[in-house]
Amino acid sequence: MRAFVALELPEAFADETAALSRALVEACDGRFVDPENLHLTLAFLGEVGEAEVRSAMAALDAARLGVGPVRLSATGLGTFGRARDATLWLGIRKDPQLLSLSTHVREELSARGLSYDEKGFLPHVTLARRARLPRGGLGELAFPLPDVATRLTLFRSILSPDGARYKPLYTVELDARPRSQRQACPKISERKNTSPITR
Ligand code: 2AM
Predict the structure, then answer these.
(1) Digit-coded pLDDT (tens) for 100-159
(2) Of 43, 113, 146, 152, which has fewest CB within 10 angstroms of its CB?
(3) How many CA atoms lie within 13 A of 22 on its CB side?
(4) Which atom of ligand 1 lies nearest, measured to the CA of 129?
(5) Nearest CA to ligand 1 atom 12
(6) Is the pLDDT of residue 17 over 90?
(7) φ, ψ (nearest 5 deg) of residue 51
(8) Would the pTM count as exceeding 0.90?
(9) How far, in Å, is the centroid of ligand 1 from the Cα of 46?
């Protein structure tokens, strides 16, 4: 099966990202990712067997130790590929916790003999594939407010002619503290971010 490790988006951030996608649908053609499939990939494993899936689960257990919840802050839109056939994504700030988690995950995978796509980590949430970007810009867009991700998940990717579907195989919570010590994360009140597309 095809597998990857990703952070699930917290509910409010996912809803606001889905709203951003709906606004973008108005401005460009493309295959937009279904809201329930939005995620932030930390390591793409590719084809793996049952034994490797079990090793990847153990890697998640090990990677979460000492890593708390991870702050997600949108930085603007970006693209891979050509403007007529692009992958359009929402950039996520390279917070130290996020970088540390991705390093831990990759190290724990390697320690178990698992290989992954070793391209440098550029945190992003893919919004659309095969997107055709308009020449005139995208207008003013509302970006998701900063939020905190707590769910680190091993996903199976099921490819079909209608696009990929992602099925969670195993999830660990990024909160080592006892429940009694947990508190809600404050939200920042900034709302608009009209940063331009970066390539
Ligand atoms: P993308 O969103 O930038 O396409 C499932 O395919 C997830 O793994 C996607 O988030 C995808 O990133 C990511 N991924 C990373 N490397 C990949 C690769 N070589 N092939 C397919 N998906 C890859």
Answers:
(1) 999 999 999 999 999 999 999 999 999 999 999 888 878 889 999 999 999 999 999 999
(2) 113
(3) 9
(4) 4
(5) 41
(6) yes
(7) -65, -40
(8) no
(9) 9
Task: Let me know how many helices (H) and strands (E) the chain has, helices first.
Answer: 3, 10
**pLDDT tens readout for residues 147-190:** 999 999 999 999 988 888 999 999 999 985 544 554 544 443 33
> Looking at residue 195, what is its pLDDT?
45
What is the 143 CA–ligand 1 centroid distance (Å)? Answer: 22
How many Å lie between the centroid of ligand 1 and the Cα of residue 44?
6
Q: Are 87 and 80 in contact (CB under 8 A)?
A: yes
Rounded CA-CA distance 39/17 in Å is: 10
Q: Contact 149/40 with Cβ under 8 angstroms?
A: yes
Could you tell which of 2, 4, 17, 92 is best to mutate to test the pocket of ligand 1, judged by most ligand atoms within 8 Å of the CB? 4
Inform me whether the pLDDT recorded for 35 exceeds 70: yes
> Which residues have C-beta within 8 Å of that of residue 136, sequence separation ≥ 6?
none
Backbone angles phi, psi at 23, to 5 degrees: -70, -35
Ligand 1 midpoint to CA 182 (Å): 33
> Which listed residue (124, 147, 150, 155) is catalytic?
124
Asked if 124 is an active-site residue, the reply is yes
Task: Confirm if 43 and 102 have CB atoms less than 8 A apart.
Answer: yes
